[in-house]
């Protein structure tokens, strides 16, 4: 068990201690939202302890926000574990996680357990065993999954006192699994901080259209569709290039190899660049003309789409699930059929041909998004979300177990 930013149980007299569990130390959508959640509770005067199963780039940022970070093994649900071949690992991770989590709970003695995503269910179970109030912040929405899978993933949520869903789509997906979850679910749209300074779109895009993808490199997220769309545009005589920002999950290196092979086979090595993981999307967005969010499957929300709008860039998004909700109401957003590279190319061609109007709309949309996804408003709603839970009164002494 590793400690970052302090060790042991917080000792601040009269302050509540909150244990926040998160499944990774990356810097993608839900990770960045988690930073704002942590800051909300720190700002409210709580001692915040964050537990994650591994160290990574998120860790120092959490410490900067005022949290103590504890690296503790836990079960993180992955698809490979939910198979007969993965059953043994599922059991061993569960046993190890329960033991390590129990030790941490005894050391920290939290007043509340906040689990960030449904992929780390053991923390909700441990909270129930210790009769502690618990909240789960749901960032997933497997609406297209088989009903039995949806119910299995949602089952641990029945033991949480409250649920926070990051979109109406996520909340409805939970309700489809277990109707009784609706009464304890509140929708809080993600707080998404924009760039420190907005770089205005280019005056024209006559030389080339600069396309951007930001996200995990996985078949689900569809970066291969961006490569195909750029190829299609160039076949039509429209100069286009693409930067692809993101990295693969461990074990998905084969997909990155496929992307590189596709770029080579299509003779796009001078037009498509894999930039790897970037700690912030803003430089890439500032250098781009339009962002594409081409997810093939359901998404609970669409942080990346919102980031494009906050950067005053037109965005092309799959017309599905939470992406539809995230980009709704923005004039610079175009919606396309999921999985259709030609439709993406059509949307990009239309944006290029109507650039003056689209870029002006993007500047107007930026102001709307900055208000709709205000970080301060998000943090206020997160603090409100624990109102009424049986937490230790402020100023009360902690009784050691």
From TrEMBL:
The transmembrane segments are none
Q: What Pfam family does this protein match (any one)?
A: Glyco_transf_4
Asked if Metal-binding is a keyword of the record, the answer is no
Q: Which residues form the Glycosyltransferase subfamily 4-like N-terminal domain?
A: 29-192
**Glycosyl transferase family domain location, by residue?**
207-358
Task: Give the source species.
Answer: Plantibacter flavus
Q: InterPro entries from the entry?
A: Glyco_trans_1, Glyco_trans_4-like_N
Instruction: State the superkingdom.
Output: Bacteria
Keywords, sorted A to Z: Glycosyltransferase, Transferase
Please state what the protein is called. Answer: Glycosyltransferase involved in cell wall biosynthesis
User: Can you provide one Gene Ontology molecular function annotated for this UniProt record?
Assistant: glycosyltransferase activity
């Amino acid at each position: 068990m590793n400690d970052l930013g302090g060790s042991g149980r917080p000792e601040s007299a009269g302050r509540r201690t909150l244990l926040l569990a998160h499944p990774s130390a990356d810097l993608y959508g839900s990770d960045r939202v988690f930073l704002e959640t942590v800051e909300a509770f720190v700002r409210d005067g709580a001692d915040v302890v964050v537990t994650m199963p591994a160290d990574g780039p998120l860790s120092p940022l959490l410490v900067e926000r005022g949290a103590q970070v504890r690296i503790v093994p836990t079960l993180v649900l992955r698809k490979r574990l939910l198979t007969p071949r993965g059953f043994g690992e599922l059991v061993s991770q569960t046993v190890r996680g329960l033991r390590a989590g129990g030790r941490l709970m005894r050391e920290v003695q939290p007043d509340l357990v906040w689990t960030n995503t449904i992929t780390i269910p053991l923390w909700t179970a441990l909270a129930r065993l210790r009769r502690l109030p618990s909240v789960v912040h749901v960032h997933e929405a497997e609406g297209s999954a088989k009903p039995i899978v949806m119910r299995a993933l949602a089952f641990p949520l029945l033991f949480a006192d409250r649920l926070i869903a990051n979109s109406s789509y996520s909340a409805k997906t939970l309700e489809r699994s277990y109707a009784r979850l609706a009464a304890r679910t509140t929708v809080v749209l993600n707080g998404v901080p924009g760039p420190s300074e907005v770089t205005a779109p280019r005056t024209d895009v006559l030389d080339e259209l600069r396309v951007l993808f930001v996200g995990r490199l996985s078949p689900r997220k569809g970066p291969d569709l961006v490569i195909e769309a750029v190829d299609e545009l160039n076949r039509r005589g429209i100069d286009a290039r693409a930067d692809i920002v993101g990295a693969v999950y461990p074990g998905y290196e084969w997909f990155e190899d496929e992307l590189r092979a596709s770029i080579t086979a299509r003779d796009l090595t001078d037009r498509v660049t894999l930039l790897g993981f970037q700690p912030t999307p803003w430089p890439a967005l500032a250098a781009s003309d339009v962002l594409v969010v081409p997810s093939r499957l359901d998404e609970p929300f669409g942080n990346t789409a919102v980031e494009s709008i906050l950067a005053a860039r037109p965005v092309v998004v799959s017309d599905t699930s939470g992406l539809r909700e995230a980009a709704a109401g923005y004039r610079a957003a175009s919606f396309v059929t999921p999985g259709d590279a030609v439709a993406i190319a059509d949307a990009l061609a239309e944006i290029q041909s109507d650039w003056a109007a689209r870029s002006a709309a993007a500047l107007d949309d930026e102001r709307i998004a900055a208000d709709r996804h205000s970080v301060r408003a998000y943090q206020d709603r997160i603090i409100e979300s624990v109102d009424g839970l049986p937490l230790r009164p402020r100023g009360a002494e902690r009784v050691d177990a």
